[in-house]
TrEMBL record:
It is found in: Apical cell membrane. This is NAD(P)H oxidase (H2O2-forming). It comes from Elysia marginata. Coiled coil: none annotated. It comes from the Eukaryota. Signal peptide: none annotated.
Length: 1321
């Protein structure tokens, strides 16, 4: 047997116990250190007697002896005193006995000792004096939790503190065996740092429930004990001694014993003699099985661990022996420690028996909660605020870059302005003006504009814009007196010239001396032309208030026109209702005093003031020849052309050009009249053509021999078209504000259908090629109508349902695809949400982060799908190929760009949910103890070093890549907006290449496997491979440099480029390509529609200058720049790609509507159709009738298209293509000038084989805007058997929206479906 050893080994107790509970309180720590040193003592003793033993053998021997000692003390010394009886004698190891711990023991019986634990821990020094901490007789137990080291070091050192604690334990009495537990183990029991206020009793009850233990009686019955039938029967002694407690116990459980927990019922059995039969039975059974079922029990002779002598020695060891021999001789010498330290006796330590009441002790301190979020508050707020501001910072960056680009552009513009300024100065130097001054014209609420004031030798003041255009003329020489007003305050630099019958001229000079100089020059100039001058000084506000600006003049003219038109058409107009005109007398006086200048008169007629027509018409109306038209003169003209007879109207036109007033006109004067009208229509035919037309009219009327024509002869010339002129009038600007066309059509011509005529069939009783005089009608002369459409009668509900039905019918494919797409997104989100909310409940993620983990994982799944699917929407070559397959019947490939945007916004939506979700998830993670984070298998946490928010966000690969992804997303989406693309397209192009970085970061983001295995690759691999293959096809084309064969800048800011067609380049009419110009960067591609036909050897593009890139391209091909360049720049080509316009051949009837530059795709389609017709291959396409509607401000803007249309007419003898041209920059159908132009058009076509005087085509030319609903109805009546008509429009949004409305209305009113496909430019 090993003898005692008194050597103390210095150890770091804080980290060497191996059990965190050793530091719970000083008593537990002291006992732990006691047996720790006992082990070391035994090891040294073994090494002393046998020096040749290895360290492992020494360790095992000491370990066996410590275990045997503890087994003997617990089972044979402590347990009998606890339960009041000993275990049955040991009969040897029984292999069939299960020695595992039962749930009843773990969650119930062993916790019975809580009733014995006192509320205090006392320390007794070597002089047998109890320590009095803070003046109290002992340490309060609740105040010692996890402060063991601090208390042991309070007095002397750790060793002395441990000895004092053990001495105090041997002299301190335990609590009584009863049903009470001290407050220290109830409401003041320790808990985790984040919630230290726990209740040990409550935790024990909850532990039994977590184990799924049955109720109290069921446990008793399972252990073979008698079932209790009443609450009084649970503890008869307690019922007698404390009946109130039993009643409260019964009331708490509602009188139902089946609701009593096992632990509560067992504690209620307690009597002064110890635990009741339930806990006694459980403790005896558990320790008996531990002893009998343990093969390594120290009494087992068969295991060979101990000899007989050693077993006897172990049976003689007590806790008192260990304490006395391990803590040192000094304690044993000074004090007599009782042999049985579990029982306090008179011969114990210092002869003391100490018992403490809670009232005598210090109150429990309020526990300090450990804030795991401490240190993360400020970073959390700052970081999430920065992430929230990141999109706005990107917007600010985009705005700054756009402004920088605008600044650089403005600098170039200023350089050009400087050059223009030099030319302007040169022009002023060479001009015949007497003097020229620069100033700013004040325009009231509008911005001032820079002007030049020219005083000419004719006595005129000419006002020019500094950019060159002429603005107005003031005839100073004709004024009786020149009235001038000048400002007398502020800068004294404003001068106003008062015009009696026009708006005043108010100019501002840079300084007072310059104004004074101009004032002197102006007065001298007026006096030189015998015009008196008056100069009046006013304060600046008074001056501004007294002058008549152009804006104020226009308001006066508006009321002037309203009064005139209401008088002429007998409309109810009350000027007193207008604001600011409550004084009727003054108002009527102002109206009557207004006189129109020639410029204002021309503006009222919507023509230029210097036109020959205006000169003659103005001279005719200005009866007093004062250069102005009075109210009465203008009213007479309006009444004449509104209600006068045809003879009166023609007589007016006759006298307009009978300049000499002889009552006769020559053929030259008649030709001049028609030429002036053609000038208004922006058409410039040869003089020979006009003369030939006049000769034709004379020959038709039998007056070819006459040289001079009277008014009667003039009427005879126009007699065949007298019906056309019957209701003709003038189209005055402002007329529609007062006079509206009557609904019954009284003012509409009877023989010519107008735009308001609902039944156009009356115009097609013959198949003549007579042009329509309707400015807004369709070329219905070519539509042979054999059937009448029957219009159904709808209720309002049916009408709305018809609109919905049409929308669904027209967009059924789009709706179907969107339903599938959003269904997949919602399905993926829901599946992940359910998985982490229900199926993964056991992992602890939801408990740790609530439903935030479910939301973020669901959003992550949808993000993975949407971001991967984005690649497929940009596989342009694949989409172009699929458009030619049957899949195009079910999938709207034309809308792939719009669908790309929808997918992108959906991805952004789920990204926002993911980001916001993790803002809550990170908060939950940071506020949890480190031991709860063990569910993250891929991360390593230190128990003594909580993970902060900064570490989660920047210390993990997932968090750091997430921050980078947010940055990339902000840049991508901000620079991809329409505004950014419009102003900084090149940056959009560059930033959009960050999608590669986006996908790389996304892969790395999930590679850390923090929550789950990465799933992004499952969505990404397929689309990525397909996109790369599609991109390789594009790259194979982009590598080839293409030579430009021809380039030309056309009117209306259009540039034509013709370049070499690459080998094996196949495309369809209506498709588009992407080009990059080497002079502007080979990586910046822009889309344009091909205007060449598939059968041509070269490719053509017509590009309208709208943005910086297209303007720079136009500048490159400017004639002046090309003089210094030997060759055109190279081009890079990518395409072709499919567009909705290419499906024109899939309908029996197709209607093409092009406006502005939007006619470019139809140029290719028309040439393709013509080519197939010329080689008799039209059978290859389904389309058998093509209607082309061209809407343009002037036919001269797109003369290149006229050549294509002329070629179409030459090879289309059967009229398979119907062409109508609408010129919008002219008058409407009821205007007299328009009627005369139609007369000229008819005769010109008869003389030139049906060609138009305006376009040189056989196609009908209309003036005004088309009525698309009327056109669609006409198409349906021409083809009543067709149930589906393809309508294709391309141009500004206003045009395509109008076509869409017409398709909807026509589809409602007819049984045909008009499917609309459109593109905007």
């Amino acid at each position: 047997m090993w003898g005692p050893c008194f050597v103390l080994i210095a150890v770091d107790i804080k980290h060497s116990m191996g059990d965190t509970h050793a530091f719970e309180n000083p008593a537990v720590l002291s006992l732990s250190v006691l047996f720790y040193r006992y082990h070391n003592t035994l090891a040294l003793e073994a090494m002393k007697w046998r020096r040749n033993l290895s360290s492992d053998v020494v360790f095992e021997k000491a370990r066996r002896w410590v275990i045997g000692t503890m087994q003997k003390i617990v089972v044979y010394d402590w347990l009998p005193k606890l339960v009041g009886r000993s275990l049955p004698p040991y009969t040897g190891y029984k292999r069939w006995v299960k020695s595992d711990i039962t749930d009843v023991f773990d969650a119930g019986a062993i916790n019975y000792i809580m009733t014995l634990i006192p509320p205090a821990i006392t320390l007794i020094d070597k002089h047998c004096e109890p320590r009095r901490p803070n003046g109290y007789p002992a340490y309060r137990l609740c105040n010692t939790f996890w402060k063991s080291m601090e208390i042991l070091n309070t007095y002397l050192d750790q060793e002395a503190g441990m000895i004092e604690v053990l001495r105090g334990l041997s002299a301190q009495l335990a609590e009584r065996d009863d049903t009470f537990v001290v407050e220290d183990y109830r409401s003041k029991f320790y808990g985790p740092h984040y919630n230290p206020d726990h209740d040990a009793v409550l935790l024990t009850i909850m532990k039994g429930r977590d184990y799924g233990l049955p109720d109290y009686n069921t446990v008793r019955q399972t252990l073979g004990l008698k079932v209790k039938t009443s609450f009084e029967d649970v503890n008869p002694w307690l019922t007698r001694e404390n009946p109130q407690l039993v009643k409260a116990f019964k009331k708490l459980h509602g009188g139902d014993l089946s609701k009593v927990d096992m632990f509560v019922g067992g504690m209620m059995e307690t009597t002064p003699s110890g635990p009741g039969e339930l806990f006694t039975q459980t403790l005896i059974d558990q320790f008996t099985r531990i002893r009998d079922g343990d093969r390594f029990w120290f009494e087992n002779e068969d295991n060979g661990l101990f000899s007989e002598e050693e077993r006897k020695a172990l049976m003689n060891i007590t806790l008192s022996y260990v304490m006395q021999n391990i803590t040192g001789k000094k304690m044993n010498d000074d004090l007599e420690l009782q042999d049985d330290v579990f029982t306090v006796s008179q011969d114990g330590a210092c002869g003391l028996k100490m018992f403490f009441n809670e009232s005598d002790l210090e109150k429990c301190h309020k526990p300090k909660k450990y804030n795991f979020f401490k240190g993360s508050e400020i970073p959390y707020i700052i970081i999430w605020t920065c992430l929230g501001l990141l999109p706005f910072l990107c917007i600010l960056a985009a705005y700054t870059l756009a402004k920088l680009k605008q600044f650089l552009h403005q600098r170039r513009v200023n350089a050009m302005k400087l050059e223009k300024e030099k030319r302007r100065i040169l022009r002023r130097t060479l001009s015949c003006s007497v003097s020229v001054h620069d100033a700013l014209e004040w325009q009231g609420s509008k911005e001032p504009r820079s002007v030049e004031l020219h005083l000419t030798n004719k006595g005129f003041l000419e006002v020019f814009s500094t950019s060159g255009p002429h603005l107005r003329t003031i005839k100073i020489c004709t004024l009786p007196t020149l009235s001038v007003k000048i400002s007398s305050n502020k800068k004294r630099n404003v001068l106003a010239i008062i015009m009696p019958r026009e708006y005043d001229l108010v100019v501002e000079f840079p300084s007072e001396p310059m104004r004074s100089d101009y004032e002197s020059v102006l007065c001298t100039f007026a006096q030189s032309h015998d015009v008196g001058t008056t100069v009046e000084e006013l304060k600046l506000p008074e001056l501004y208030g007294s002058v008549t600006t152009k804006e104020k003049r226009n308001r006066m003219l508006e009321k002037f026109f309203k009064t005139v038109f209401s008088e002429a058409f007998q409309m109810d107009y009350d000027p007193s209702l207008d604001r600011g005109h409550s004084d009727m007398k003054r108002h009527n006086k102002d109206i009557l005093e207004i006189e129109l200048s020639k410029e204002e008169f021309a503006e009222a007629m919507a023509v230029k003031a210097n036109s020959d027509f205006v000169e003659h018409f103005f001279s005719l109306i200005d009866s007093d020849r004062n250069g102005y038209i009075s109210f009465r003169e203008f009213l007479n003209a309006v009444v004449l052309f509104s209600k006068g007879t045809i003879q009166e109207k023609l007589q007016t036109m006759f006298y307009m050009y009978d300049i000499d007033g002889t009552g006769y006109m020559s053929q030259t004067q008649i030709a001049k009249m028609f030429r002036s009208l053609l000038e208004l229509a922006q058409s410039n035919p040869n003089h020979e053509d006009v003369d030939l037309m006049i000769e034709s009219l004379c020959h038709q009327s039998g007056m070819q021999t006459k040289e001079m024509y009277s008014f009667e002869d003039f009427c005879q010339l126009l007699s065949p078209q007298i019906d056309t002129l019957w209701d003709a009038s003038f189209d005055w600007k402002g007329l529609t504000k007062v006079v509206r066309q009557p609904a019954n059509g009284k003012n509409v011509k009877k023989t010519t259908a107008s735009s308001s005529d609902p039944d156009l069939r009356r115009r097609v009783t013959t198949t003549s090629e007579t042009p329509s005089t309707n400015g807004t009608a369709f070329n219905t002369s070519r539509l042979i109508r054999k059937f009448e459409a029957v219009r159904e009668t709808y209720t309002p509900f049916k009408s709305r349902m018809k609109i919905v039905k049409h929308f669904i019918e027209n967009y059924r494919h789009h709706i179907f695809i969107l339903v599938i797409f959003f269904g997949i997104c919602v399905g993926l989100f829901s599946e992940r949400f359910y998985y982490y909310s229900v199926e993964q409940e056991h992992t602890g993620f939801r408990k740790l982060m609530s439903y935030g983990i479910s939301i973020t994982r669901g959003a992550a799944a949808s993000m993975s799908f949407t971001f991967s699917f984005l690649l497929l929407t940009m596989c342009r070559n694949t989409i172009t190929f699929l458009r030619s397959t049957p899949l195009n019947l079910f999938i709207p490939f034309d809308s792939h760009v719009s669908f790309h945007k929808i997918v992108a916004w959906t991805a952004l939506f789920f990204s926002a949910i993911h980001i916001v979700g993790y803002s809550f998830n990170f908060y939950h993670l940071v506020t949890q103890p480190t031991r709860f984070l063990c569910i993250f298998n891929s991360l390593v946490f230190r128990h003594d070093h909580p993970f902060t928010f900064q570490q989660w966000l920047f210390g993990t690969m997932t968090g750091f890549t997430g921050v980078l992804l947010v940055l990339v997303l902000c840049i991508l989406y901000v620079f991809a907006t329409q505004t950014a693309r419009r102003h900084i397209f090149n940056l959009f192009w560059l930033t959009h290449k960050l999608f590669i970085v986006l996908y790389v970061l996304t892969i790395i983001h999930g590679a850390s496997v923090v929550v789950q295995k990465p799933m992004f690759y499952a969505y990404f691999v397929g689309p990525a491979i397909w996109y790369m293959l599609d991109k390789l096809i594009s790259l194979s084309r982009k590598k080839t440099e293409l030579c430009i064969l021809k380039a030309q800048n056309l009117p209306s800011d259009v540039t034509m480029i013709e370049f070499k067609r690459p080998p094996r380049f196949e495309y369809k009419s209506g498709q588009w390509v992407r080009i990059a110009c080497l002079a502007q960067g080979k990586d910046e591609y822009h889309p344009f529609t091909l205007t060449s036909a598939p059968h041509e050897d070269t490719l053509k593009l017509h590009i309208r200058a709208l943005g910086p890139w297209t303007w720079n391209l136009r500048h490159i091909f400017d004639d002046e720049n090309m003089k210094n360049t030997k060759a055109y720049p190279k081009l890079y080509l990518d395409g072709p790609y499919g567009a909705g316009q290419q499906d024109w051949y899939q309908y029996d009837v197709s209607v093409l509507v092009g406006a502005g530059i939007g006619v470019t795709p139809y140029a290719s389609i028309l040439k393709d159709f013509v080519h197939m017709a010329s080689i008799n291959m039209r059978y290859k396409v389904k389309c058998q009738k093509l209607y082309f509607i061209w809407i343009t401000g002037s036919q001269r803007h797109f003369e290149w298209l006229i050549d294509i249309l002329r070629e179409v007419e030459e090879v289309d003898p059967h009229g398979m293509v119907s062409i109508d041209i609408f010129i919008t920059q002219f008058f409407q159908n009821f205007d007299l000038r328009t009627s005369l132009l139609y007369i000229f058009e008819e005769h010109f076509q008869k003389m030139n084989g049906g060609k138009s005087v305006f376009t040189g085509l056989k196609a009908t030319t209309h003036f005004g805007r088309p009525q698309m609903t009327t056109i669609m109805n006409a198409v349906h009546r021409a083809h009543p058997q067709v149930r589906k008509v393809g309508v294709f429009s391309c141009g500004p949004p206003g045009v395509t929206k109008g076509v869409e409305r017409a398709c909807v209305e026509t589809s409602k009113a007819t049984k045909a479906l008009f499917e609309h496909h459109f593109e905007n430019f």
